[in-house]
Amino acid sequence: MVNWLVIGIGDITTKRVIPAILEEKRSLLTGIVTRDPAKAEPYRVKAFTNLTQALKTVDANAVYVASPVFLHAPQTLESLDAGKHVLCEKPMAMDYPQAQAMVEAAQATGMTLGVAYYRRLYPKVQRASELLRAGAIGQPVLAYASCHSWLPTDHGLRSWLQDPAMAGGGPLYDIGSHRIDVLNFLFGEPQRVTAQLANAVHALAVEDSATLLIEYRSKVRGIVDVRWNSHVKRDECRIIGTDGEMDLTPLNGPELVFPGGRELLPPHTNVHFPCIKNFVDAVLDGAPLLSSGATALWTDWVTQQAVTSNGRQ
């Protein structure tokens, strides 16, 4: 069994992570770390306001880190040092050096480190990878992914996303990281990144839009455009090859269109469940971990390069 200690009791954990843990047959929720223990009462497990105390008290062998981004690295490092496997929310860390430290700590302790880039496990993303390897569109040369929306305020519940000291950045870190990771999964190691970050509409402490050009060792060029300044929602993902085009738009939807046909491959009703199950399979059976610290490290590298190339620190 994987006995879970969950850090954080916000939207992600209550709507997706904890339900996934409760559904997964070899998982058991054993404790929750939260600033407000009353929020943990419905789950009838021990609640703590202090991670150190929780790690010493709860019979857990895995920790799910679902706190704001600035806490990801310190809480992951403490959990790994305590001999716990860790599955961390995205983005992995505030910057690339922090992410490197997390990967090195997992290697040193022999613990499993995963990052919740669950879109890698979408059936249609897995199928797209298979089709690309089979040459369905010839040699891929260009990929485009976008995610446009308005500010993710949620009536103030996620206001920390607009604080660079807590979130690292704006849409680049929040929704951009998922798209970067999908392109990394499909096309491999990124080599060079240039980017433009701007506040086109909102005067925020973080950017309200980011456009990245990523060059991959596989010769693919990837464009990622993410925005918090559009009332028109977009969730595009297209791949152009020498012999055709593949369309995954909307990325969160079921449809995959390619020269050979059209397939409907919907994601799990709880998109976190396959991620939780894959992590459990990796811990208990040694199964390949599809989103590990080592793979997520490249997403943080791209993000770091984007910020640096734009002249921001």
Can you walk through the features of this model?
With 313 residues, the protein is an alpha/beta fold. It folds into two domains: 116 residues, 3-Layer(aba) Sandwich (Rossmann fold); 144 residues, Dihydrodipicolinate Reductase, domain 2, CATH 3.30.360. It has ten helices and 14 strands. The strands form three sheets. The chain has a six-stranded parallel β-sheet, with helices on both faces. The protein has a six-stranded mixed β-sheet with strand order 8-9-10-7-11-12, covered by helices on one side. Helix 1 packs across helix 9. The longest helix has 17 residues. The termini are far apart. The mean pLDDT is 96.
Task: Record the SSE blueprint.
Blueprint lengths: L1 E6 L3 H13 L3 E7 L12 E3 L2 H7 L4 E4 L6 H10 L3 E4 L7 H14 L3 E3 L7 H11 L6 E9 L15 H4 L3 H4 L1 H12 L2 E9 L10 E8 L4 E7 L9 E5 L2 E4 L7 E4 L2 E4 L8 H13 L7 H17 L4
Helix pairs in contact: 1-9, 3-4, 4-10, 8-10
Tally of strands: 14
Query: How many separate structural domains?
Result: 2
Into which percentage range does the β-strand content fall? Answer: 15-25%
Please compute the radius of gyration using only Cα atoms: 19 Å
Which key terms come to mind for this protein?
single chain, 313 residues, alpha/beta, 14 strands, 34% helix
Quick structural overview:
The chain has 313 residues and is an alpha/beta fold. Helices cover 34% and strands 25% of the residues.
